[in-house]
Amino acid sequence: MEESSLLNLQPIGVGYFGDIYDQFRGKAKEAFEFLVAKQSGDLLGVFHDNEIGDIDLVWGSITGNKGLDHILFKHVGEGKDFSSIDEVRAVMESVINSGKKIKIRWDKVTFENDGYRVVVSKNVRDSQGNIIIENKNWVVTSFDNNNPKAKKHLISP
How many C-beta neighbours within 10 Å does residue 31 have? Predict the structure, then answer.
């Protein structure tokens, strides 16, 4: 899909993360392109896991440490976990599709494959930790667990 036609898509509603779109089910490449161009939104069912179901991709926020905005800011760039947006997308697809669930705590599931991790929340919580949307699987973050945290903090964004 071309960028101009992507940006003309109509949302099916409005939610916590902005406009809600259902046109990206199983279409990770298009979903990433759309969110990066739009810098807002909630894309339903971009990923899928047989156990937990559809997994949404949201723009989120840098300050809230959640969603694609957070991942791009904190984990993409020279010396960070991923060298490009395309690498993030490819790794996330691979980890969710063929990784294993290594942690299931409270309402978060962590998938891992070759040290790369994708964290999926099963609810949306406010800044105080209260559940505001139940039963919504969405990508909180993704990173390379092999890349030491201390080393990442030496690189400025």
Answer: 25
Tabulate helix, strand, coil % of the chain (nearest 5).
30, 35, 35
Helices 28-38 and 85-98: crossing angle in degrees, nearest 10, is 140
Three-state SS across 2-47?
CHHHHHCCCCCEEECCEEEECCCCCCHHHHHHHHHHHCCCEEEEEE
- Give the residue extent of every domain in the chain: 8-153
Per-residue pLDDT reduced to its tens digit, 83-98:
999 999 999 999 999 9
3 state DSSP class of 146: coil
C-alpha 78/C-alpha 155 separation (Å) is 8
Crossing angle of helices 28-38/67-75, nearest 10°?
90
Question: Up-side HSE of residue 24: CA atoms within 13 Å toward CB?
Answer: 28
Specify the pairing of strand 131-133 against strand 13-15. Answer: unpaired
Q: Which amino acid is at 65?
A: N
pLDDT of residue 63: 76
Give the phi and the psi of residue 77 in degrees, each rounded to 5.
140, 175
